[in-house]
Amino acid sequence: MKKQLDIARTLKEYGLIFLGGMVYAFAWASIVAPAGGIGGGASGLALLIQYATGLPMGIGYVIINAILLVLAWMIVGWSFGVKTLWGIASISLWLNIFPSIIPPDLLGLAEDKLLSAILSGVISGIGVGLCFLQGGSTGGTDIVSMIINKYRRVSYGRVVMVGDFVIIGSSYFVYHVHPDFSNPLAMIIYGYVMVAVFSYTVDTMLAGNKQSSQIFVFSRHYQLIADTITHKLHRGVTILDGTGAFTGEPRKMLVIMCRKHETNNILRVVKDLDTEAFVTVGSVMGVYGKGFEAFDIKSKRNGKV
Description:
Order of helices and strands: HHHHHHHHEHEEHE
Helix content: 55-70%
Number of strands: 4
């Protein structure tokens, strides 16, 4: 029975990641591209290449992520989960399918650039949010962040911000020489609007993409739970000693820090291994260190900045 539940849960997760990839690709293929818009990430770069060379966005997206995956494998080793590859494959598939099955400007928004930017930001944000909630990834910036952090601790948010700024800003040179775009500066502004709406939508779905969860677990099977979380979910676990105030008995407590979207996966592990475990979950801001945000606090102690 438990095995059947695990299979059903896995199929549900991969199905929702596939659906999220479809929703994300729909926003780009049916709203952003017909309106001559632009955005950030690997999708924005692929669309920029399409404007400049005519290479279909779906193919460009596959090539960009393939190059990034190879570079990451060479630099930091193979540390990608199946869900990451599944998310990239899902988006790639739909980016190649939608242009051939959906009429151009299906929603009739090509002339309303601002509405196109806002709506595409919301829809694509929902798609990515679905992927993140299932522990998946869409590649692109995630891979770039992994490569950069091999040599220097830079927060994921900063990598996304800089990458989007550069990609959207670079579109000026394509818009400026492209005969179909008469107002390149306006299109760039709409691109930044889309990214802002996209980020807000994802944040809303994840209850704040910079928030993390602090989980306390009290269980007799603490070692089994700790080992499973460490090796299966690749999250660090700290085992603390405690004493029950009423019974005076020694107890072990697990402390786990994780990203917001990883919380459900950890709770499932605990529930599967000990249905009588006592668990508390709290939202925390500003988690700094390996695997989380980089320290961005300047100190003048000992003359160092």
